[in-house]
Amino acid sequence: xxxxxRSIEIQAxxxxxWRWLATQEGLRRWFSPNLEIDLQVGGAYRFFGPDNKTxxxxxxxxxxxxxxxxxxxxxxxxxxxxPKRLVISLAPTQAGTRVTLTHEGFAGIGTPxxxxxMEDYRRGADRHRILEKLAKLxxxxxxx
Length: 144
Prior knowledge:
- This protein has four helices and seven strands.
- The protein has helices at residues 14-18, 24-30, 114-128, 130-141; strands spanning 3-10, 36-37, 44-48, 55-64, 68-75, 84-92, 97-104.
- The protein has a seven-stranded antiparallel beta sheet with strand order 1-7-6-5-4-3-2.
- A hairpin with a 6-residue loop joins strand 3 (44-48) and strand 4.
- The chain is globular and about 45 Å long.
């Protein structure tokens, strides 16, 4: 299944990194400053995308402390029929935590040009470098 996968190792334990995923304020500091999220399974979220053109919304599908946050993901007002998924996972390493961000399910969004959408997201992942923002915050501040 086609997906976009980015990861980074942060020199802090999963308990410290998770604090930046476990609150709206923490997520706003690195993920999106205008994020509104109800951080519980089934909770809704919404934010204005980094392209400054697109509202992104969805639901919290899974929230497993110190392990993963999974969101459904849809571009509002677009031609997507079904949402894709965003998976943010944490894995302990000898040096700290491997944080992996995966956009998956592009083939299932229900548009004939889903490959072009996936390439747009791939370019955006490289341009916006949000995992690097997270690492910088964790390294500078430790906790929220």
